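Lab meeting, item 3. Inverse folding demo.
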């Protein structure tokens, strides 16, 4: 699809999804490119993020500090964009920024704190990585694992959805920190994709997770980084070492259920002085610059390899979101909307 440069395209909520998202849950709207006023910037979208959370936005849930979406609203989402007009003192035409863009091809921003619009440093890497290791997905892995997991060399670390966006970064951070890493993912293709960063993998679609954990970890685990919740979290609770840390990042296995999974064995924390700790990436906002610099330096030094799954074309945003719940992504998913323009 050739995107019109004189019209704004927006993906909006047509109806509340039931189960995984399907095309009829989305409505494509077309309107004039918005006008840039005093104190504002006009942004031309380059990349848009795809994350499990966006289905919750479509359900109208208040999952972040974004306003709950009504039917007809433009779907929330972070993106990378080029400033093509500026009436704001801090931004020049041509600057590349990231922040809350929404599922649209142009946006006028007043650069409010809630939009979290900030310039993207040119580090000689793809700007799309600002939606991967150099943005919220990377920061979730970085702060969740380092601040909440508190890894020490030799720690046994188990990571679920280990071939997904956050998971594929956590296994690499664990390796950088000298840990023994077990990655759990669904299917042979995914376990093969992450095997070079793992000491062992568990293919949960073809193997029993409880059985494999006992076989692989007779002494138990030190850190479980949980992206999925449910049965996998329960199996890890049964295999804790003294002082183990469970980091509750996400629970994607429960997002399509009517009722959350009822965890019954959390008392396993007690006997081994273990802890289970949630976190929310935006609570670390004042430290994002440090994480971005560190992750970029690991990438440049070949210590860290971004695993990305790029959807081509704005028209494919709905099917891209469905892929996350269909288990089809390997690595961080984002959409390449268009190329940078020569200005
Ligand atoms: N706490 C925070 O601040 C924060 C920030 C960002 C993300 N998150 C959460 O972190 C998790 C990972 O996010 P992400 O953006 O990196 O997404 P992601 O891991 O790339 O999510 C997609 C993957 O999840 C797995 N999955 C899907 N349905 C599943 C199911 N029913 N049971 C088990 N696994 C399932 C699939 O991998 P397999 O094929 O291997 O099953 C799929 O490829 C999500 O739960 C997200 O909500 C939390």
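The presenter then showed the designed sequence:
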């Amino acid at each position: 699809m050739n995107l019109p440069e004189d019209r704004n395209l927006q993906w909006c909520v047509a109806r509340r999804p039931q189960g995984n998202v399907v095309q009829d849950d989305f409505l494509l709207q077309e309107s004039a490119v918005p006008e840039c006023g005093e104190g504002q910037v006009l942004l031309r979208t380059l990349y848009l993020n795809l994350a499990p959370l966006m289905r919750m936005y479509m359900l109208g849930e208040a999952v972040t500090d974004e306003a709950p979406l009504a039917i007809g609203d433009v779907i929330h989402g972070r993106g990378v964009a080029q400033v093509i007009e500026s009436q704001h003192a801090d931004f020049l035409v041509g600057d590349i920024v990231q922040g809350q863009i929404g599922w649209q091809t142009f946006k006028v921003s007043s650069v409010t704190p809630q939009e979290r619009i900030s310039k993207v440093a040119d580090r000689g890497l793809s700007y799309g990585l600002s939606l991967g290791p150099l943005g919220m997905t990377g920061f979730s892995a970085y702060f969740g694992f380092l601040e909440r997991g508190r890894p020490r060399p030799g720690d046994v670390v188990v990571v679920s959805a280990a071939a997904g966006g956050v998971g594929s970064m956590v296994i690499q951070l664990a390796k950088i920190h000298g840990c023994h890493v077990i990655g759990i993912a669904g299917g042979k293709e995914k376990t093969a994709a992450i095997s070079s960063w793992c000491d062992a993998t568990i293919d949960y679609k073809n193997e029993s997770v409880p059985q494999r954990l006992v076989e692989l970890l007779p002494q138990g685990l030190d850190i479980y980084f949980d992206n999925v919740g449910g049965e996998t979290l329960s199996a890890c609770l049964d295999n804790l070492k003294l002082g183990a840390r469970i980091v509750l990042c996400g629970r994607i296995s429960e997002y399509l259920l009517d009722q959350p999974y009822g965890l019954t064995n959390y008392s396993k924390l007690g006997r081994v002085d273990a802890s289970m700790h949630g976190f929310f990436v935006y609570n670390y906002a004042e430290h994002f610059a440090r994480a971005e610099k560190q992750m970029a330096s690991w990438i440049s030094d070949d210590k860290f390899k971004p695993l990305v799954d790029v959807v081509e074309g704005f028209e494919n945003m709905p099917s891209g979101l469905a892929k996350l719940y269909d288990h089809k992504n390997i690595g961080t998913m984002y959409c390449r909307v268009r190329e940078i323009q020569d200005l």
